[in-house]
Each structure stands twice: as structure tokens, then as C-alpha cells.
Amino acid sequence: MGKKFITAEDVRRAGGGPIVTDADTVVTPQALQAAQAAGIVIQGPQGAGYREPAPDRGPDAQSALGHLAQLPEPSGLVSTGAGTGVIVTAVGVNRPGILAEITATLFEGGVSVVDISQRTIDQYFHLVLTCELRGEAEFPALKQKLDCLGGKNDYTVRTMHEGVFRFMHRV
Length: 171
What we know:
The protein is α/β, with parallel strands linked by helices. The chain has 2 domains: about 5-45, no CATH class; about 85-170, Alpha-Beta Plaits (2-Layer Sandwich), CATH 3.30.70. The protein contains 6 helices and 8 strands, in the order E-H-E-E-H-E-H-E-H-E-E-H-E-H. It has a 4-stranded antiparallel β-sheet. A two-stranded parallel ribbon has the order 1-3. The chain has a two-stranded parallel sheet with strand order 2-4. Strand 6 and strand 7 (about 125-135) form a beta hairpin. Helix 1 (about 10-15) runs parallel beside helix 2 (about 30-40). The longest helix is centred in the middle third of the chain and has 11 residues, at about 100-110. It is elongated and about 55 Å long. Residues about 70-80 have low confidence and may be disordered.
């Protein structure tokens, strides 16, 4: 049987009482926000707080993904063995200082830029940096700092671990 979903509309219809879910129920982020705003409590099984169920990857997921542990590490994209490969992309409205903001954050994070590709079309730009994270620097902290750059209507930065990039772009 498929998963059940609770939406913001379901919360509005609840009328104020607690909403009790089972282990397979997914509550949308909008429903959680609507429940919080209305003071409605969403409970999981046996009155516990709501917890998002584990993703169902289907019956073939283990056999389909099990081969990844046996693949040899590909060579040549970013990593030279001295650190962790990182791919940084940025897109948005072009203005002076964007490259400086991004590379200053990389410098503060202990990152070495290996390669840069940048293209501008009219007032828009697209930037891809292949980098290497070295020493004590940690990927999650770097990702958080980079992904927070840019403004609401300015530009967007996305940071990806080299392993994820390789997996997504292999043939």
C-alpha cells in the first residue's frame, strides 16, 4: 500500500484537535507549518511526536545500488589525493564582486580552486569551480557557507561533493 500524505488543507480541516498519524504517513512541510501556526499538534504512533518515515526506495533498491561499493574510484576530475573534491556552481544576475565573494569564502574554508569555467550572457552568468578541500576543513560547514551566498534576487550557489557529482553524471 502506498504512503499517506497530510497537506496544509488537511490541517485546516482538522479544526484544532490533534492529528494522529501512523508510521507510513508523510506530513508535508506546508502542513507542519500550518499546524504550528494553528496550534495543532501532529502526533505519531502511540502519541509520540511526528517523525518523517524513512524513504521507500522500492524492492530493487539494494540490488540496484549495491554495486556502488564495488566500483573503483574514478580518476582525474578533481581530487589529486591531497583532499576532497568539491564542485561549486553559481548562477544569477551578473554584477561586480560575485567571483570575489565566492573565492573569498573558498579561501576562508581552506579550499584550493583547481579549475574555473565562467560564461556570461547578457546580464546573467554561470560559474563552475572544481575545487579541493584540504586539511582540517569540513565539507558540511563549507557547503553551508557557500549555499548562503547571494541574495534573494541576485545569484544562487550550490556546492556538491565530488562523489555525488561523479555518480550523477556517469553514463
